[in-house]
Amino acid sequence: MFKPIPRAPLLLGLAGLLPFLWGLATLLIPALGNWALLTLGGRFTAPFVQLSYGTVILSFMAGVLWGFATRDEGWSGYAFSVIPALWAFFMVGGGPTSAAMNLTIGFLGLLLLDLHFWQRGATPGWWMSLRLLLTAVVVASLLPLAFS
């Protein structure tokens, strides 16, 4: 399962973690959060940066899965591929704690969908190596917000 990840997807995937990690830092380091609020605005501090970016990424990943579904998946693959975007639309809201928990659940569910498409040969061989790494960091960055 663990195959080497090509450089471009690895570096771009890691760069995509920066908003999650920045949000976590502004949550855990109050002085940084205050500085960011005054300097960058509330949109770039926890919980807003993590929740808005997480919603965008969960929806983006639905599009990625749609692309995998085109590889001879039939109806089920297409149906599975829209779940992350629908989950983000219906479940992310109601306050930062519940939104962060629902995003966490969404990203864990996405990992199961990644596994489904990977097992069917619709993804590159290295896909699960990348997705496990990225999902672990995303979930670790959202859980403190979900339990704050």
From TrEMBL:
<protein>
    <recommendedName>
        <fullName>DUF3429 domain-containing protein</fullName>
    </recommendedName>
</protein>
<keyword id="KW-1133">Transmembrane helix</keyword>
<feature type="transmembrane region" description="Helical">
    <location>
        <begin position="49"/>
        <end position="68"/>
    </location>
</feature>
<feature type="transmembrane region" description="Helical">
    <location>
        <begin position="75"/>
        <end position="93"/>
    </location>
</feature>
<feature type="transmembrane region" description="Helical">
    <location>
        <begin position="130"/>
        <end position="147"/>
    </location>
</feature>
<feature type="transmembrane region" description="Helical">
    <location>
        <begin position="99"/>
        <end position="118"/>
    </location>
</feature>
<dbReference type="InterPro" id="IPR021836">
    <property type="entry name" value="DUF3429"/>
</dbReference>
<keyword id="KW-0812">Transmembrane</keyword>
<dbReference type="Pfam" id="PF11911">
    <property type="entry name" value="DUF3429"/>
</dbReference>
<keyword id="KW-0472">Membrane</keyword>
